[in-house]
Amino acid sequence: MEIKSFEDLGVWQRSFKLAVDIFEITKHDKNYVVKDHLVKTALSVPSNIAEGFERSSNKEYIRFLDISKGSSGELRTQLMFAQAVNIIEFSKADEMITECKEVGKMLGGLIKSRKQIQKRLDSKES
């Protein structure tokens, strides 16, 4: 499948769904500080993928993918905290943590691929 937009990326689709799931599961929670931070961090993952994709250079794309990968680690930590203090039910948090790990692995693979492309671009410029 040809990737024409960030919406075509499996990693964007999965991270976007995870952000929606986190919003849905926490939207009625009264702990606004934790809830708001969870949603903000969850939304940061697909948002940075999208922003990087829309940038004009591969180097910038890689930089935003790195930011997104960092946000996925931050989100995993916040999900573990929400699980530990019973903001999110244990099994549901476990599912989300597992999905977050998968998104992180996918981002790692995409970063590696984009870095290989960058090496080829750099060698052509030399």
**What is the CATH architecture annotation?**
Up-down Bundle
| Termini separation | 32 Å
Number of strands: 0
How does the major sheet shape up? none
Number of helices: 4
Oligomer: single chain
The topology string of helices and strands comes to HHHH
CA radius of gyration: 16 Å
Protein architecture, described:
- This protein has helices spanning 10-26, 32-54, 58-84, 90-125.
- α1 runs antiparallel to α2 (32-54) and α3 packs antiparallel against α4.
- It is built from four helices and no strands.
- It has one domain (7-125): 23S rRNA-intervening sequence (de novo design (two linked rop proteins), Up-down Bundle), CATH 1.20.1440.
- Helices cover 82% and strands 0% of the residues.
- The two termini are 32 Å apart.
- It is mainly alpha-helical.
Set down the secondary structure blueprint.
Elements lengths: L9 H17 L5 H23 L3 H27 L5 H36 L1
Main attributes?
mainly alpha; de novo design (two linked rop proteins); 126 residues; 23S_rRNA-intervening_sequence; 4 helices; 23S_rRNA_IVS_sf; Four helix bundle protein
Please sum up the structure shown.
This protein has 126 residues and is an all-alpha fold.
